[in-house]
Design goal:
single chain, Jelly Rolls, alpha+beta, 152 residues, 4 helices
Length: 152
């Protein structure tokens, strides 16, 4: 969003950083901008999830129910994304993502992403590289946590 939230814009942050201004403006038309109030769920664990969310501003928590207890999986903020895996492989969401402060997000679903890829393959490649890097970074972090849990 713009600084005053009157004109939707995807900022050059995170996975969007390699894209030029025009590429981000075009891409924005393939998705939707959405305000998320504190306490509101962006994604609910177990629900069908087919979209990628890019956090324009704000902070959200990802939690999951395990053994009857809510477990904080992590926080996401400005320039980060959630929903990467289900964008590429739609399935039930593995976590609930809740705004902890007012947040602005942009969402694209898998069908809209496919249309963007077909129309604009070069910038779409940069976007998908960013998604892949995000997934790889998060997988590496999980692997390190598992290894440290087992004393590795």
């Amino acid at each position: 969003m713009s600084a005053d939230f009157s004109t939707p814009q995807i900022p050059a942050l995170g996975i969007m950083e390699p894209l030029g201004d025009e590429d981000r403006d075009i891409l924005s038309g393939y998705g939707e901008f959405k305000p998320v109030q504190p306490g509101s769920h962006l994604i609910e664990e177990g629900s069908v999830q087919t979209g990628l969310y890019f956090i324009i501003s704000g902070k959200l928590h990802a939690t999951a129910m395990r053994g009857g207890h809510k477990v904080l999986l992590g926080s996401v903020g400005t320039g980060e994304t959630v929903g990467e895996i289900n964008l590429l492989d739609p399935s039930a969401a593995s976590a609930t993502v809740t705004a902890v402060e007012f947040s602005q997000v942009w969402r694209i679903d898998s069908k809209s992403l496919e249309a963007y890829i077909n129309q604009y393959p070069r910038p779409a490649a940069w976007l998908l590289i960013g998604v892949g890097k995000t997934i790889a970074r998060r997988l590496r972090s999980v692997n390190e946590k598992i290894a440290s849990f087992y004393g590795g």
